[in-house]
Amino acid sequence: MPQSCFSRLPAALVLYAAFFVLAPCQAADPAPVLKTITTRSVSANRVAETPDYARTLSGSLDWLQFGVESRTRYEVARDDYTNGLISDDALVTRNLLYLGIRHALDPLRFNMELQDSRRFDSNLPDNSSVEDRIDVLQAYAQLYFENAVGKAPVSLSAGRMAFDWADRRLISRNRNRNTINAFDGLRLRVGDENAPWEIDAIAMRPLVRNVQNADQSSADLALYGLACYWRGWSPHIVLEPYWLWLDQRQAPTAQQRNLHTFGLHGFGQWGNKSAWDYDFGLAGQWGAAAGQNRQAWAAHLETGYTWTNPWKPRLGLWLNYASGDANAKDSSNQRFDPLYGASYAFYGYTSYFSLQNLINPALRLSFQPVKKLKCELIHRGYWLASDTDAWVKAGRRDATGRSGSYIGQETDVRVVWQIAPSCDIDIAYAHFYAGGFVASTGAAPGANFMQIAATVRF
């Protein structure tokens, strides 16, 4: 029998959870609502627990949270580098249903979310990043104690969960991707997103998606983590230190990973009317993977300025960095592992890149010409952090380094039209310009991607 991930749960975390669950909770005055800032960095704000399409019903049903989200999207990909330069069109759908029970049985609460993701009229083989037919995305019970520590709530959840963590670069509830990451296990939260501080501890088994059959987690793969959120110095700075441990030792050697990732995310605003903003993230990774020692790191640095005119334009400049392997023939590997993080908005709408062996500067202009119309224009550049390592998602590598490091550039354009409170149209276009590394390692056409999505929530 494979060893359960919960049998390896650090003793300190078990004691920590037991203390807050078993300790008596005394009545206290309701905690004041804290109005803190969120980062202006693109897509870095998290969905901590309840999905953003869900709402609490009114009247006699105020104990029930309910939501339905249905998205239909048409995608056009030309010379897709992640699929061997194949061109393909597809219609993809994602339907979500959420139910949550609050207050009626407190401190016991229940949450369930179903997902149905499909692809039609495509010539590509089944892909679990796109398709996951009628499956359970979330199903967990929760013990919730309001005002339990000071005036902060405490919750202990057990079951299947989907959520964002820190800045979403290592654990994300996927937004644009047609399927969403989920995990089986335990989660302890002390405080919440409305409190000046929060502690979030997890002991999980990442879910392995299956297109045709039920998704399952494996006892051979475990993920532990601890994140802290300090908002007491908002708006000047919000700090989010974290630690993650991915333990995958029972798999075949090529799949084994035993990685510790330590990081710090921070953001803030300053200046007249908080016109200036910044966002940064630093992460170091140590351990072993695929029989090699692993020592890697990654960073994100960003600053932006928002004007006060009616269009609310913001100009942002950022740099993403993730280390790459220096030598394919030695016993160590310096390539950063992005774990279960998001990639679409962070590294390009073509989805050709992730936080691996990457130097990625970008310039973004966003504006809102009318209240219900949001627009953005992003230009990105791409280099290999190590020219002897791979462009990972395209599967291209020159271990000699003679092909250079310049992969290319990408221009992204996006328009989101909120045609009604419960309905929006999202149109995105991206063009990739191939650079010298691409031309030296194979065919190097310019590539195009476009998607038109309609989303309805009720």
Structure description:
By secondary structure, the protein is mostly beta strands. The chain has a single domain, classed as Porin (Beta Barrel). It contains 3 helices and 23 strands. The strands form 2 sheets. It has an 18-stranded antiparallel barrel. A hairpin with a 7-residue loop joins strand 1 (55-56) and strand 2 (64-80). The two termini are 44 Å apart.
Keywords:
mainly beta, Porin, 18-stranded antiparallel beta barrel, single chain
Summarize the helices and strands and which ones pair or pack:
Blueprint: H1 11-22, E1 55-56, E2 64-80, E3 86-101, E4 108-120, E5 132-149, E6 152-161, E7 183-190, E8 197-208, E9 216-217, E10 222-230, E11 238-248, E12 257-270, E13 276-289, E14 292-306, E15 314-322, E16 332-333, H2 344-347, E17 358-370, E18 373-383, E19 390-391, E20 396-397, E21 406-420, E22 423-434, H3 436-440, E23 447-457
Parallel strand pairs: 14-16
Antiparallel strand pairs: 1-2, 2-3, 2-23, 3-4, 4-5, 5-6, 6-7, 7-8, 8-9, 8-10, 10-11, 11-12, 12-13, 13-14, 14-15, 15-17, 17-18, 18-21, 19-20, 21-22, 22-23
